[in-house]
Each structure stands twice: as structure tokens, then as C-alpha cells.
Amino acid sequence: MLEEKATFRWDKGVNFEKMRKTLERDYKQYGQDTETFDKEIYVAILLTQLVNGTRISEAVRAFYQFVETGGKERNIVLKAEKGGNERQIIIPKLIAYKKYYSIVLTKSERKMASVLKMFCRRHYGVNTHSFRYAFITKAIKDGLPAEVVAKITGHRSLRHILTYVQTKEAEDYLTRVVNS
Fold first, then answer.
1. Considering the entire predicted model, what is its pTM?
2. Domain 16-179 top-level CATH class
3. Active-site residue 129, yes or no?
4. Does 155 qualify as catalytic in the annotation?
5. Which of 28, 38, 52, 162 measures 20 to 30 Å from 98, CA to CA?
């Protein structure tokens, strides 16, 4: 999943579209085997994190609310972990509620986030926060203004987004110049 990029990169080289396809494939695959239901749940949460640009703890909280409503509520509004801004998190349509998902409610959100961080490193070779930056990278490349990206991702200040955008643009420019 990692592209050839320096390890100091914010997004750790995670390509949003490739990772999305990988997670969607894995979700479908794990969903076919009752012995891998835990991995199915993990991938569902990671996919939610990736496509919404959330922190892992926010994706876990949103998924727990999805499960608590029996899958009826896909548009979850949470207070961002940092800053307390409200933000919308949408559970992807691909994720179909299954009764056994309620098993996640037996683990604390903090424990689940910890398990997911380890699972992500072992199975995809990156940390979960790389998914957040992959989303930001995609949004910026798609031309979304930094202010809108900050609103979507729950950043209370543009400072982090602008620093990231400027760093990303500088690195991309340098790569184009060197390789042209």
C-alpha cells in the first residue's frame, strides 16, 4: 500500500483510492467467512475513517453509534476529539449492519481504537492517522479549499491544514522539477 516516498511524509505515502479499494475488497472478503467477523468489523471502521478523514477514535465512536441504532443511522454527528467542533461522519453504504456487529459494544472505544491501530500496522503497514492524511491529500488535490477541508476533518484551526498543504505542494513541486 505504500508508495515509494520518504518516511517523514505526513500521509506516509497512502494513496486514498488504492487504500479505499483495498479496504472495500477486504471488507467483502472478511464478510464471507464467519471466522473473520472481527476483521470485518475492523476494516469497516478503518474504511469509515479513511473516507471521512477522521481520527481513529472518531471513526470508532461513529461506528459504535451506527451499531447502537441497529444500522439505521448512517449520518453521525460527533464533537471532534480535539477542539469540540461538531462534524458529520457518514458510514459508507458498502457497510451493511449485521447483528453480530453488536459484539464491538463489549469493548471500550479506547480499547477498540488501540486494537485498530495494531491491526492497521500489521495488515496495511501504516498507522491509522495516515488514513486521515490520505483523505486530506485527496481533498487538496481535488481542489477543495483548505477551509472546507478543515471543516470536514474537524480541525479547529487552519494552521495544521495550511502547513500540511504548503508542505505537500512544496514536495510535489520539487518532485515534478527533479523528475522532469
1. 0.85
2. mainly alpha
3. yes
4. yes
5. 52
Amino acid 4: pLDDT: 42
CA distance 43 to 14: 16
Under 8 Å between Cβ of 164 and 133: yes
Catalytic, out of 18, 28, 79, 82:
82
Active-site option among 98, 129, 151, 160: 129
> What pLDDT, in 10s, does the model give residues 124-145?
999 999 999 899 889 988 999 9
User: Do the beta carbons of residue 40 and residue 18 sit within 8 Å?
Assistant: no
Q: Is 164 a catalytic residue?
A: yes
Rounding to the nearest 10 degrees, give the CA dihedral for residues 149, 24, 49, 95: 110
Annotated catalytic residue: which of 20, 55, 87, 168?
55
Give catalytic status of residue 123 as yes or no. no
DSSP-derived secondary structure for 3-51:
-S--TT-TTTTB-HHHHHHHHHHHHHHHHT-GGGHHHHHHHHHHHHHHH
Active site residue 132: yes
Going from the first residue of the chain to its last (180 residues), give the mean pLDDT of each consecutive group of 10, the final group possibly shorter: 46 86 97 91 98 96 97 90 80 96 96 98 94 90 89 81 73 84
Neighbour tally for 140: CB within 10 Å: 18
Question: Which of 27, 30, 42, 164 is an active site residue?
Answer: 164
The catalytically annotated residue of 12, 132, 138, 168 is 132
